Amino acid sequence: MTWSTRKRSSPAGAMLERSNSIGPRDVLGLLFFFDDKASRCSLTKSAKSTISICASMILFTILLFMLSTFDPGKVNSSQPSLPTIGPQIEISFSKRWRVLQNTVSEKKLMPKKEWTRSRSKLALHGMGTLFRRGTRAMNELVVAHIEEETTEHEVRWFLRTLHRSGVTARADVVIVFPWSHVPVEILGVIEEENKSFMKLLNSVIREATVQQTMSRASINASDVEHSEQVLASSRIVVNRGGGEFNGLKANSTCKISAFNAGAFKKAAQERTSAEGGRSEPLWGLNNGSQSIGSGEMFFEPVWGSIVGFEVAELNPDDALLGFLDQPPMQLRRWACYQMLLGKIRHKFKHVLLTDVKGVLVLGDALAVVRKKNGLYLGLQDRTWSDPMPESNSSNETGLLVSGLGKKSKSVFERVYGHQMWSSLERREKEMKLVNSGVILGGIQPVRRLANAMMTEIVRVALQRKSRSSFPDSVLLTYLLQKSSVLGKKVMDHVHSVENSDSIIHSLDKSKQKDLFFKKKSSPYIIVHGYEKLNVDTNFTSIVMRDICSSPADAEAYGDCNWVDTRHTDSR
Fold first, then answer.
1. Do 438 and 526 contact (CB within 8 A), yes or no?
2. Global pTM?
């Protein structure tokens, strides 16, 4: 009895006995025992839910990636529809999986290579095409536009004479194409002329280097003199056989298109002394040194880059389409000038705007504006009172009728209307047209002129009842003669030179006696409009015989094999 009572009350007694020894920590443990257990359970549940969410997100990401790379067109095209199902389902699934794997691998590998290759050919800011990267940055720029009807033959002769003139020793060349996809033939001509230029330049340097080595060994004054003659490309002058085209004579005893190798040496020396080193070209990516030759050369030449832009790249909205029906490249190019010159206005000092069609560059054209920052413009022998050419005329009014006894409207009246034509004085009606095909000057004045021309084109288009195109030479003449849009700052530095004294020979209705030389026997630097002589094949044959008369030139150009350089009548 005594034992059982003691045993039954032992727990309480034990607690009572230990009550004197319980501390504050034990009391807190008893109070928060159940709370600590609940918190542990909540943390476990939170961890499990977090892991579940992460796993779900990973699975969802994988599924989304597979769906985004899945190309049902390729799978459907590779897997024909089957009339029965069953065992074919497994085969179809395995084939689809293999196609999916191939598609993913192609998308991972192939676009990267294509993107790298195309990126290396981009000219500027993700636009344009780089045909040739120059050796250094240039201070001058040539912007040449190709019209829709320009032939492969005309592109070839423009580039060939441009390379030989020495202009590319100081200038980059930008070609503006009217097409969204440039014809393969045009691209082939650009590549061929680049290779011919490099081959010719290399041969001249090699020849000059040999002469320099001989002069050092023998210290012979005659050899040194001969070396300088080689460098200046004073080649043998042969009788090319003259000619006469629409009353214009071609001098048959003077050199027309000599390769100006001296310009490349002089440009290299000037740039080295001015900059003290090499500066990277503006266009394209740096792919290493662009120099030619090896070892000790007589001089290390420099040359500019050649790039091309489509009109859609420089004028994506086709700004004139809302004002004119099918605006020609002759007018669309002014919108391209606005964007292009705006992007590079701080990179270049002088610029030459030129047509490709019917243009030969026979010398360093930009030399005339190199020491000045104005505008140099050549005048034609045509006037405002001359009738509109047939190629630019239209029958929107029904007044331009040939052979019916009605007098044709003047070119100014066709563009600006009868009211403005009547308001002109007789002296003003005989003003000569400015050649809009070739414009030289500082980049800032040329840029202001391009902006003013674009504004004038839109203004005239809005005032005309017809949506047909018109020649921009009339607008350019009006801006320079009758308008104050350009401002006094630009107009004070405009040089409008007569056709007989200009460096530009405008062959359209030309009254000059010789094709290539002015009154004082000094040569024209640029000849423009030979395609309007209707005998362009015979005309270019004169220049061809002149080029192929030199053995070094004949070796560089493959088409010289078909040219007879002997005296022949080219009429």
1. yes
2. 0.72
